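Mods, move this if it's the wrong board.
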Amino acid sequence: MALSEYDYSLPTELVAQKPLLNRSDSRMLVVSRDSGLIEDKRVRDFPLYLASGDCLVINNTKVLPARLFGIRCQTGGKWEGLFVASNSDGSWRVIGKTRGKIKPNEMVELRDSEGANRIKIKFLTQLEDGSWLVVPEFVGSVSDILERVGYVPIPPYIRNGEMNSEDKERYQTVYASQSGAVAAPTAGLHFNSRILEEVKLCGVEIVEVTLHVGLGTFKPIEVENIDDHKMHSEWCRLTASAAAAINNCKKNGGRIIAVGTTSVRVIESSTDNTGNLIPFEGETSLFIKPPYKFKNVDMLLTNFHFPKSTLLILVCTLGGYDLIRKAYKEAINQKYRFFSYGDAMLII
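Not the wrong board. Structure tokens:
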């Protein structure tokens, strides 16, 4: 299909700028593929759509404080950027902006908001995509360093990317444990401990997978024919115990409910030709688009996604193009809140 078919117009006032006080108070548009019915509910109603023997799959990735601010040691000019990834040799990949041009071997001193913590990074080589390889002059893990000088990487459509104190907690799922993401798996932001306990009381097993959300999730599609788009890759892991739990659920007639498109990518990337899940760890570049046939995902809880995005294409592929288009129109008419801190959609 053409990229233009996945476009829609969104009033700017519907882009959520902050989370609700209570996570589960978010609205939830329930979309039934069987009946075509679209209902206005709340996330706290989510357990009502589950049944004993089902399996809920959540992504336990943890967002790193990846946004960086610093001073160029040579010129005194300001530099700001984002940690993208680390390499086995201890180097990092970062993107950034500054007045003028950074040169190889130049040093930048990263600083926290109070200037108390300062760590220097040395710029080595600029890569083809414009990012840089840098080396931190500090002995410690990536998490240790970023906790000292990093900021929550709030997306630019939320307060122009400026974090506030509540973002440290709220731009993170309550079950986040595996550090590595530079953006949140936003569907999971709606869950609190009470919802998760109610899910367990329904006789539903909660299975954790990991996919570290990367910058590629925001990369726009730049070709009209979506088949020509080169999908970004993201690191993910499905453990042997998680694969066994999901396989057992399917074997016994249970449904697989994915929380977020990231969980979908892990599940579908780890499925063999017979439909069974197998343990997997590594990069996935799976692009779910028509006429993709889902192998193991029966239901999906997801946020509302950008026009012309790979995530919107995924959701339309699962829910059906016409029905999801209708649902988005309904969400806009009912003034749902969109994107990371926004409301949710449950496709059943």
